[in-house]
Amino acid sequence: MDPACKLESAIKRSPTNTGPGLDDIGYSFVRYWWKEKPDCLRQLVDYGLTNNIPYSHSAEVILIPKADKPRYDIVKSWRMIDLLPTIAKVVEEIVLIRIAGHVVLGETQFGSRRKRGVHV
User: Fold this and answer.
1) Which phi and psi angles does 18 have, rounded to 5°?
2) How many other C-beta atoms lie within 10 A of the C-beta of residue 58?
3) CA-to-CA distance for 4 and 38, rounded, in angstroms?
4) Is the pTM here over 0.70, yes or no?
5) Does residue 103 contact residue 97 with C-beta atoms inside 8 Å?
6) pLDDT in tens, 40-82
7) Residue extents of the structural domains in the chain
């Protein structure tokens, strides 16, 4: 699969029910950008992948207190949400697509497989 198809596939796989990332860019904007100027977005992603842009490695962690915990000085009393740049999440999906093309997961492997999650 050529890089343009991987980028398009990664954008199509992106969720529709999430807020903007750390960069304040939402997936809806990325989809619009891809529809209007695919070459521009492709150049940005290619530049980021080849030049190791530092902003793509940053994240903001938000701590949310869990309900009904007796003490909030214990780590288990908090839930963490990592806010990543949206373009970095699209690039993550491209890397996942590339790896999935080379790794064969057996039928006994359920982790990291689409529609094969295990619910307890």
Assistant:
1) -115, 160
2) 13
3) 9
4) no
5) no
6) 888 888 887 777 776 666 788 889 999 888 888 888 899 988 8
7) 3-100
